[in-house]
Amino acid sequence: MVGAVLGELDVPLSEQSSRVIAIAMRVSISLAVAVFVAAGATARGDEVYSTTITIRNHRFEPSEIHVPAGKRIVLTVVNADPLSEEFDSAALKVEKVIAGSSEGAVRLRPLDPGRYPFMGEYHADTAQGMLVAE
User: What are 48-99's pLDDT values in tens digits?
Assistant: First the structure.
């Protein structure tokens, strides 16, 4: 096989070894590039959808948000109120306290199509919302 690759059998063994090593390195680099290209295609398929919701006067603005089903989601919750609020959803399996006058990121798994209620636990009478995955 080495002879077929090198095309010459009367080359000294040290030179044959150097050529074999050079060929092996080229093949390894080609394989590594192919793996990175494939990984990049997979990563693009796992893109994250980002959206923002604001808590103001103990209400969510907007009260209903639409997101794509089947994608990971990062929901930025901006709390414009001076008091803390807990973003809470049993349907989304998430709880996160957002300090007053600050913001926080809520990371959600890919969701099936459907409606997912959420609320501000500290002001549940007014802070109600719905996330719609479609």
Answer: 999 999 999 999 999 999 999 999 999 999 999 999 999 999 999 999 999 9
Which pLDDT does position 90 carry in this prediction?
A: 97
**The overall pTM is greater than 0.85:** no
User: First and final CA of the chain: distance in angstroms?
Assistant: 57
Say if residues 22 and 8 touch (Cβ distance below 8 Å). no
SS (H, E, C) the chain: CHHHHHCCCCCCHHHHHHHHHHHHHHHHHHHHHHHHHHHHHHHHHCCEEEEEEEEECCEEECCEEEECCCCEEEEEEEECCCCCEEEEECCCCEEEEECCCEEEEEEECCCCCEEEEEEEHHHCCCCEEEEEEC
Q: Which fold has domain 48-133?
A: Immunoglobulin-like (2.60.40)
